[in-house]
Each structure stands twice: as structure tokens, then as C-alpha cells.
Amino acid sequence: MPINRRLRDWLIVTIGTPVVRLWFATCRVRLVGEAVYHRHTGGQAPAVVATWHRGTIFLVWLFRRLKPMIMISRSRDGELIARFAAKLGVISVRGSSSRGGGQALRTMVKFLHGDGSRIAATVLDGPQGPRFVAKKGLLFLAKIGHAPLIPVVVSAWPALTLGRAWDRTLIPLPFSNVTVMIGDPVWIPPDTDSAGLESIRIAVENTLKEMVHAADTATGYRRVWPRIYDPSDLMKRAP
Question: Tell me, what's the pLDDT at 128?
Fold first, then answer.
């Protein structure tokens, strides 16, 4: 990477991190599914958090005290998020479904079975989309890690939406209302075959779509949903 780009990224992270800390601290956060949250983050049992890419920045800040391990792509955008996460005390492992994913998964499984913090997080529609389409590969982490998959989504209003970003990155504005919704855990048996994993993938994808729609409705997030996906898709379920 050219030195001028490295310097620019360093400045963005060094200056931006304390700004983000103060910025997000003003938000009013409503946690839906608090019982599930405490059940799977308060002890030593491993858990895998799954979310959509659009809310990654806020969720990294919100759950920083849990010191989770997060899989972050090897893209330039991923590099910025990884540096931001490190500043907040979050552990990152670089990889994605398209590059370095196998080694990253092995690192995360080892982390889940280790001592101390045992929360791992994945972005199901990363690193480059399509947005709101879950990738089956990342479900392997919950399967081989013998850990429940916990669906989590975030919405906010007022909020910035980065319209040129493939994921329509959502950034809550100061003093905004934020809804973080935590769904019921999904267990993936270790003997699940490829067809079974695809069935679970569809079910998890539909669940996360429903959750993000409900969270957007709760906050009043003003983005036209038909531009994101057809609401009739919510009626489709895995066989």
C-alpha cells in the first residue's frame, strides 16, 4: 500500500476512533431480546453472532466490552474496520468467504474453545454482497465450533446511509434512537450435511430479513424497503 494511503488510513482511524466513541455514546440504545443477550454473553459458553454488513461499525462499538473475535475481509475497507476494531479492543481475524476464509475459520474455532471471552462474530452477506443474502460458508463456524448462532441486527433514526456502499452502510447520528434486535439462537448439529446446511442458511437469511425490517420499523428508519428486497420474500421458508 502506498505510504500516502497508509498515512491517510492512520489519520482516519486515529482521529476517527475517539470521535466515534463520543458520537455513538450519545445514542439511545434499545435492546430487544435482552434475555438472549445475557444468556449467551454472561458465561463461558461459546456463541457466534451473525449480522448484516450494514450495521458493522455501530455493533463493533456497542459490543466492544465483550472483546469478541470478528472476521473482517482483507479488502481496503476491511483494513480500516480492523484498525478501528483494534482501537476499541476488539480482536479481528482477516478473511472472508472469497479469500483466507479457511484459515480465519480455524482461528475462530480455536478462539471459541479457548479461555476467557468466547464470542465470535461474522457478517453473513460480506465482504462484497449481495446485501441481505447469507453465505453458507460462514455457518460452518457455528457448526464446527459447537456454538449457537445468534442473529443480531441494528437500525437507527436519524441515521446516515452511505448510498454508494454496496451494503448501504448505516451510521446512527448523534442522539439518535437505535434498536438492536437479538434473535433466538440457532443450533447447527455437527452431522448436518450440505442440503441441511442450505436449509438452515435460507431460514437464517429470512430471520435476519424479518428482524432488520422490524428494527427499521421500530426506529422509523426511512429507506424504501422494496429497493432492498421484496417483502413477499418473507413468506418463503426453508423446506
Answer: 78
Which residue ranges make up each domain of the chain?
Answer: 3-235
3-state secondary structure labels for all residues of the chain: CCHHHHHHHHHHHHHHHHHHHHHHHCCEEEEECHHHHHHHHCCCCCEEEEECHHHHHHHHHHCHHHCCEEEECCCHHHHHHHHHHHHCCCEEEECECCCEHHHHHHHHHHHHCCCCCCEEEEECCCCCCCCCCCCHHHHHHHHHCCCCEEEEEEEEEEEEEECCCCCCEEEEEEEEEEEEEECCCECCCCCCCHHHHHHHHHHHHHHHHHHHHHHHHHHCCCCCHHHCCCHHHHHCCCC
d(CA 59, CA 5): 26
Distance CA 150, CA 48 (A): 6
Identify the CA nearest to 95 among candidates 61, 54, 63, 141.
Answer: 141
Instruction: Kindly indicate the confidence band of residue 238, based on its pLDDT and cuts at 50, 70 and 90.
Output: very low
pLDDT at 105: 86
The grid coordinates listed for 133 are 443474502
Q: Which residues pair with 125 in a beta bridge?
A: none
CATH of domain 3-235: 3.40.1130.10
Confidence class for position 156, pLDDT limits 50, 70, 90:
very high
**What mean pLDDT comes out for the span 135-141?**
85
pLDDT(104) > 50: yes
CB atoms within 10 A of CB 129: 13
pLDDT at 123 > cutoff 90: no
